[in-house]
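Bug: token stream looks shifted between consecutive jobs. Job 1:
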Amino acid sequence: MRQKNISHLQPRPVVAVSGRPNVGKSTLFNRITRTKDALVDNFPGVTRDRHYGDASWNDRDFVLIDTGGMHFDKNDTFSESIFAQACRALEDADAVIHLLDGKAGLSPFDADIIRMLRQIQKPVFYAVNKVDGHGQEGRMDDFHTLGMDRLYPVSAEHGYGVHDLLDSLTAGFDETGETPGPDLQSDGTEIRRIAVAGRPNVGKSSLINRILGEDRLIVSDSPGTTRDSIDSLRRINKIPYLLVDTAGIRRKKKVSQKLEKFSVIKSLKSLDRCDIALIMIDASEGMTDQDVTVAGYAHDRGCGCVFLLNKWDKVEKDRHTLKKYYEEVKTAAKFLSFAPIMTISALTGLRALKIFPLVEEVYAQYSSRVGTGPLNRILGQAIEKNEPSLTRGRRIKFYYATQISSRPPLFVCFVNYPGAVHFSYKRYLMNQIRAGAGLDKTPIRLIFRQRPNRKRPRNPKLGGKPGRKS
């Protein structure tokens, strides 16, 4: 569930897909990467940040970057930032696929972009999209006036011509750098997958930019700036972290636009594939019901959690302020009472890098395994101290327990009447496991099962057939 292919961080060729808004860049990205990672909608300007994905063609592996539409619109407050992000992607790339719109036809701005592309010292492949077959290749005639040596007719939606484009693209790749090693980390260190989650405009993108030390993500005071879930990798203290910036999760009744609904769905999927969720809260506004909802999403998906009280620099403080905030969070999100809390400021950098030692504590517990012997000793002492209540006049018997998985730790306890264990007694046993096994900062799961039936002894009085004792 949490497997994420991050091999785009290997030294593979990098290919950027550029073009005006709504020419089909994200559709082409999804087709080449064979995913649905990039949001697609008929509304222009859907893609804002750079989006990375892994692709392979003719046994050559490469990285594809989906960029925002290159244009300037005085009515669009993001157009300048989107253009800057697209230009940065072009700088990072080893080759470029520039997409033109065969259905809408030639635009004056196409010539401006192509003049810019001719100045970069890397291969550029010009493709005219929305050409669905040989009969529609006449749509390309106007584009020949721009003076390109070759135009590739393609249909990103239906796949027409994409094979020819990829054949030409990958033919120029240096075979010495195309195949990655078996693991990104030569020292065998596992990558920690960290989702940065929260309501809109709580500072998620600002925090990642602060950690990365660059403007990797577009930041604005306007809620809803981030729409895709964007991955970034950073080593901190020699440990690799995959940071996933998620779209802000609004209350359901406020999610009206189709596009924003998809953003929320992608945010929830990001939580599914991450180990730890950094749940950001705007400390200047305090804990809200929606913050609790976001925390609940992370908890339901089995993520380890850390609460980050952001914008701490804006809070008026006295000696009781910190304790008051901590109590507010613990009270509002009782189901995450084990989750650590930290105050930060993404704007000033206050304690931004101190998040990671705390993440490591959570991750170590989140990935830990408890031996069957120690686990049963913990539960034995707990049951001896506080026996479960009778059910229908019978005592619940606990036979043994074992851990069956980690991330988060999952324990199964075999009993004679699984359905009779009261939820309060289950909570008691979980707390005892936490205390006894040192799992005070991670979610744990405890399930009860009927002990497998053993073959019962034959009873000669009942004709030698196995059965209940008389």
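Job 2, same session, no restart:
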Amino acid sequence: LGDIAKKFGKRALVVGNETFLQDLNAKIIDNLKKAGVEIVGGGVVPDAKPNAPREDVYRTESYILHYKPDFIVVAGGGSGIDCVKAANMLATVGALETPEIDHYFGTGMVTEAYKKHNVKALPLF
């Protein structure tokens, strides 16, 4: 992971399930650090509760906006991954379109926002 990820920058936000994936999270961080990647935020950011509640999406977006990583690594299940994808999108287009997540619900809405503002989300692993 470290050798691939470092091609996308030097600063990573790592989001993970701290209940069940502590060993995996430690391996991810170790691998990134060995590749010379800085872990922003001081460690693993907690992933989302089931069904990625809005408060978890907005919390994760806050980490992205505050720490300005070059890329994001997420270790977890579907809710954690969905949360990070939504937070990544909000951090990318929220200030350009609207920071209200409901605006982006519906087929093609996120793609349309990226195209309209000619931006891309941060790389996500």
